[in-house]
């Protein structure tokens, strides 16, 4: 065992993986050592040592002008190799492109990773005012943003309640993300069929999301759109929700066929 790493401390691999995920959420701007150490809740010297080792392996690189760290070329090569088993983005990209074209709003595809959603695709529509809450690589806890709410609402009740019991979203996202508040939005999502985020992350930036299911009938991802309140609130909301659900159903069919 590495000196200083007891059984109750995260491993070097886990810490390194955490830093890589944090960097992915901060592209293309990148992040400094101090920012990453703070976000990862580890000492700055430890963060710098891990980042330097990752840099030696090509997994991260550093901008000598700004001092910001970025994902390195080896991450791209690893991701490209993994697409043979995990890539559903061609079908998802077509769905996202169609939603952006038909609605004029920014459209996204997010996937579930543990207790989080990760945005993996974004396409901006023709409407000139855009939301910058979501971008490729950003992560949110389940129940936060419309994609995470759509997935959480359609999970089996036992798993959903287990998550609500262990998640504490209020410190970071406010009382509207307490377990009781989430249960109300979950009920509304299940009744409506799609999730609505009425500007709870950024005031005035609304989102709608619809879950996509795997071959076992479990929600593993979500299509979503974001825009200003005037364009996503009722009465247009029903039309946009219908388009989202149709796209999500079609993507589910493609993901589960064969």
UniProtKB/TrEMBL annotation:
It comes from the Bacteria. The keyword Transit peptide does not apply. Residues 10-73 form the HTH iclR-type domain. Keywords: DNA-binding, Glycerol metabolism, Transcription, Transcription regulation. Residues 74-257 form the IclR-ED domain. InterPro entries: GAF-like_dom_sf (IPR029016), HTH_MetabolicPath_Reg (IPR050707), Tscrpt_reg_IclR_C (IPR014757), Tscrpt_reg_IclR_N (IPR005471), WH-like_DNA-bd_sf (IPR036388), WH_DNA-bd_sf (IPR036390). GO terms for molecular function: DNA binding; DNA-binding transcription factor activity. GO terms for biological process: glycerol metabolic process; negative regulation of DNA-templated transcription. The keyword Transcription applies. PANTHER family: HELIX-TURN-HELIX TRANSCRIPTIONAL REGULATOR, ICLR FAMILY, TRANSCRIPTIONAL REGULATORY PROTEIN. May be an activator protein for the gylABX operon. This is Glycerol operon regulatory protein. The lineage of its organism: Bacteria, Bacillati, Actinomycetota, Actinomycetes, Propionibacteriales.
